[in-house]
Specification:
This protein is α/β, with parallel strands linked by helices and 411 residues long. It has a domain at 17-211 and 247-284 and 319-340 and 381-407: 3-Layer(aba) Sandwich (Rossmann fold). Helices cover 39% and strands 13% of the residues. Helix 6 (174-193) links the parallel strand 5 (144-148) and strand 6 (203-209).
């Protein structure tokens, strides 16, 4: 079930935040790389609200303004400013933090920047992932490692078919190739060093999302930040590739999948290592860039858009991308909550309210989190039910777990 209404449910929390995801993160140590970025800041805030003790490891925020600074996330995390390319420092911080679970989001995340800085992109996205995996090998407390890559990791032949997890890795451009390489590295480490089953074994999963949108993104060469910069300056939005199709989703959609996957791994619910897609439905989320821009303008209330002047050549970017997430739906009971239209609506509202009062950023994030959790609960998604749950036989079988055993798993 997907809700189109932007309100998404109750305006106040009727369930304690730590109860979501079966209470898996309450009181647990979590290591999060990339927490100063857009997606990482949303995940860091959500983990904090879930009761996790978060150690964040990242470079300084990459933009000004940044969501990390706007919500003052550093006050609710152990904030380590360092580079994932520094393998020894990363290993030392991971071992010192003694996490149960790691989420690896630190990356050079921009397609066009990768053309200008290919070496830095490969060093960060590939060797940074190697360093994370090496740190995981040295951490006896660790049970789950979730490595975030991208929908662009796949070899894209522009077939019009949504990608499934076992499709070939590839990448025409440096960014896409670096993410495909990160997936290959992760698979090699998983098969070589993290095999087997039972206590003491780290489950290594890689996760791939669509084009995420939401409040607090100010990166260069992304369509929503481009919209915001142009509209707040009273200018027309310049859209480079209006016909390119992408799998659009609110940032909370894939994050709920990452958190639910991690909760299942921590609970010992079967062999969940491997690759996972967490994308929108192809029927709803796969939309051209122009559709997103026009919906954003509708919500903003003013403005217009145009294409670049002249015939200047543009770096190659895939025309068509879409993800098939049947595996996550069947095995985890995960599903999208907000439609693409609702995601754009909430995103436009976030920025509009932020520019009226920048000090309200954390409250705006809280409001979206509460609404999303309420909508997920209304839709009957298992991660949004109160209490602790276990899914031994997949999404169809859910029953309470032994809380005492739950607390012993990351000692």
């Amino acid at each position: 079930m997907k809700l189109d209404a932007a309100s998404g449910g109750a305006s106040q929390e009727s369930v304690g935040p730590s109860a979501f995801f079966g209470g898996a993160y309450a009181g647990r140590q979590v290591f999060l790389t990339g927490h100063t970025g857009f997606k990482g800041a949303w995940l860091g805030e959500w983990l904090s609200r879930l009761g996790a003790e978060v150690t964040g490891y990242a470079l300084a925020p990459p933009t000004d303004p940044s969501l990390f600074d706007a919500i003052d996330l550093g006050r609710r995390t152990r904030h380590v400013v360092a580079d994932v390319r520094d393998g020894e420092r990363l290993k030392a911080e991971v071992v010192a933090a003694r996490p149960c679970v790691m989420f690896h989001l630190a990356a050079q995340p921009l397609v066009r920047r990768a053309y200008a800085e290919p070496r830095e992109t490969f060093e960060t996205n590939v060797m940074g992932t190697v360093n994370v995996l090496e740190a995981a090998r040295s951490c006896p407390s660790l049970r789950a490692l979730i490595i975030v890559t991208s929908d662009k990791c796949y070899q894209n032949l522009e077939s019009g078919r949504p990608f499934v997890e076992d499709d070939a890795m590839g990448g025409h451009d440096p960014y896409s190739s670096s993410k495909g390489c990160a997936e290959l590295v992760t698979a090699a480490y998983r098969q070589s060093f993290f095999g087997g089953a039972g206590d003491g074994v780290v489950a290594v999963a890689s996760v791939r999302a669509g084009n995420v949108i939401g409040g607090g993104d100010w990166a260069q060469d992304r369509i929503i930040p481009d919209c915001v910069r142009a509209l707040t300056a009273g200018e027309r939005i310049v859209v480079r590739s209006p016909d390119a199709v992408r799998p659009w989703q609110h940032v909370l959609e894939p994050l709920s999948g990452y958190l639910w996957l991690g909760a299942h791994i921590l609970d010992g619910s079967g062999d969940l290592a491997g690759a996972w897609n967490f994308g929108p439905t192809d029927q709803d989320g796969a939309r051209p860039v122009s559709w997103v821009v026009e919906r954003f303008l509708e919500e903003w209330g003013t403005g217009g858009w145009t294409t670049p002047a002249g015939n200047h050549p543009q770096p190659h970017e895939a025309h068509w991308l879409s993800l098939e997430s049947t595996k996550a739906r069947k095995r985890l009971g995960w599903a999208p909550v907000w439609s693409a239209r609702a995601a754009v609506r909430r995103t436009a509202a976030w920025y509009r309210d932020y520019y009226r009062d920048p000090s309200a950023a954390r409250e705006l994030v809280r409001t979206d989190l509460v609404a999303y959790q309420a909508a997920a609960r209304e839709a009957g998604l298992p991660w949004a039910r109160a209490g602790e749950w276990r899914a031994d036989e997949g999404a169809a079988s859910v029953h309470p777990v032994d809380a005492e055993r739950h607390d012993d798993r990351c000692s």
